[in-house]
Specification:
Layout (H helix, E strand, L loop, with lengths): L1 H19 L4 H13 L7 H15 L8 H7 L14 H19 L6 E4 L8 E4 L35 H38 L1 H6 L9 E5 L5 E3 L1 H10 L7 H6 L15 E3 L7 H17 L3 E5 L5 H6 L2 E4 L5 H7 L4 E6 L2 E6 L6 E2 L2 E2 L5 E11 L8 E6 L2 H12 L1 H7 L12 E10 L2 E2 L3 E7 L1
Parallel strand pairs: 3-6, 3-7, 7-13
Antiparallel strand pairs: 1-2, 4-5, 8-9, 9-10, 11-12, 12-13, 12-14, 14-15, 14-16
């Protein structure tokens, strides 16, 4: 008994000393890296961003940065002063991080020295030695203190009848307590179900874009830059001599077309290559939508135009290829896919290669104005570059713009994938979209064909 008591005392003293020791920041950082590399956080972009932010600022001693509005602004790109009551993004994400941390520590994949927790009702993480974490149903250690003796049961005596009223009352209280517990569990279960259903409805967009978080590299948003020519200053001066006061400033020359006679002959010397011009309007609109989306998801992005990126860049980063017939990389990426962009003579189209062999072409009215355009969204988990690649490309600029808006809109994308296979996020896909154009503005795109593999 003495040996047992002394061993227990030493263990207790060691535990108290360990709990009192400050935890080195290096130990906490190593545990954070293990958590982020685990299967519970590896592809959860928002949870990774959130946990990295709060741990980093806690270690740096900046509690003032661990406020809900500050986190919403810094991590989720909400505007300064946004209404936290109307936008619960921080509270929802904090709950998700707590759930993932619990799964991580319950999985038993690692035996951490330090544990990281996010207390309920707080955005300031706490750090503990792993030995301090409570273990459920852990058997109590041996003790030298004897257990209290229990008197032996008395023999039943007919002369001393048992009083039954108190046990009945105790059972009544037990039933009431059980009923209350069941009611609480039912309410909690209903709340969890509604929360999970809401998260599921809002997660289609995040499921689509999750692969961009497989690497720390920024997403490249790749636009084409077609060759563009402008009239020389000589042509502007010639026109101004007969039309005084016109095209006197650069903004007039770049914003208004020069109304030359269609029969007027020009020489190449009267035109010059404008290297600073040429991005299509629809492509630019799509790029803006997608860049804004990446910011909201917490993923860094870089817009690359024309020759400002190479195949080597595409091999090292996930990429969004914007535009079709004006973008070399889109044409190469989609050349052998189920839906491909095809140019026959002066006709531009999307053609199904195999299957029903369907073809889609832009629709024009009697004046030559486009009334409907078509586009392809391609999602390739492992493209020719070896990286996650998304193509956002229309036959015309309107189709590209509509495709970009669909990919950046939670409701539009959820509707587009409503009939997709249950495991669509694990597959490659192509969606053919159609958009109706009114006053040169494309409307919401709708899916007219899809292919998953």
């Amino acid at each position: 008994m003495k040996a047992i008591f002394e061993s227990s005392s030493h263990e207790s003293e060691n535990s108290l000393l360990l709990a009192a020791d400050p935890i080195p920041a290096e130990e906490i950082q190593q545990e954070l890296n293990r958590i982020l590399a685990s299967r519970f956080f590896r592809s959860a972009g928002r949870s990774r961003q959130f946990l990295q932010y709060v741990v980093q600022h806690k270690l740096e001693g900046h509690p003032e940065l661990l406020k809900e509005r500050t986190i919403g602004t810094e991590v989720f790109q909400r505007p300064a002063g946004y209404a936290t009551g109307d936008d619960p993004v921080v509270r929802v994400q904090a709950g998700e991080v707590r759930r993932r941390l619990e799964q991580y520590y319950q999985s038993g994949e690692d035996s951490p020295v330090v544990s990281i927790e996010l207390p309920v009702g707080s955005y300031s993480p706490s750090f503990h030695w792993a030995s301090e974490r409570p273990v459920a149903d852990e058997p109590k250690a041996h003790s030298s203190i004897p257990a209290p003796s229990v008197p032996p049961p008395q023999a039943f005596s007919p002369a001393q009848p048992q009083i039954s009223a108190p046990p009945v009352k105790a059972r009544s209280k037990s039933w009431i307590l059980a009923a209350v517990c069941i009611a609480v569990l039912l309410v909690a279960g209903l709340g969890l179900y509604l929360y999970q259903r809401n998260v599921h409805q809002l997660s289609t967009l995040e499921r689509f874009w999750n692969p961009v978080f497989a690497t720390q590299q920024p997403v490249l948003i790749c636009l084409a830059k077609p060759v563009t020519y402008r009239p020389s200053q000589e042509l502007y001066r010639r026109y101004e001599r007969t039309n005084p006061g016109t095209f006197k400033s650069e903004w007039q020359r770049t914003s208004k077309p020069l109304p030359l006679d269609i029969d007027q002959q020009l020489t190449w010397g009267q035109m010059y290559l404008a290297s600073d011009y040429g991005v299509a309007v629809g492509d630019a609109q799509a790029a803006v939508s997608l860049s804004g989306l990446m910011g909201k998801l917490g993923k860094a992005s870089q817009v690359r135009i024309g020759t400002n990126y190479s195949f080597e860049d595409l091999r090292n980063s996930p990429a969004l290829e914007v535009g079709a017939f004006n973008n070399r990389w889109t044409m190469e990426t989609t050349a052998n896919l189920h839906f491909a962009f095809v140019e026959i003579g002066e006709h531009f189209m999307i053609r199904e290669q195999g299957g029903q062999g369907r073809v889609w072409q832009s629709i024009h009215d009697s004046k030559g104005n486009a009334t409907d355009d078509f586009a392809v969204i391609g999602r390739l988990l492992d493209s020719k570059t070896g990286q996650f690649t998304v193509t956002v490309a229309g036959i015309g600029g309107s189709g590209t713009q509509a495709a970009g808006e669909l990919l950046a809109n939670r409701e539009y994308l959820a509707e587009a994938l409503r009939n997709a296979p249950p495991d669509w996020e694990k597959r490659n896909m192509e969606l053919v979209l159609q958009t109706t154009i009114t006053d040169s503005v494309p409307g919401p795109a709708r899916v007219v064909a899809a292919y998953f593999w």
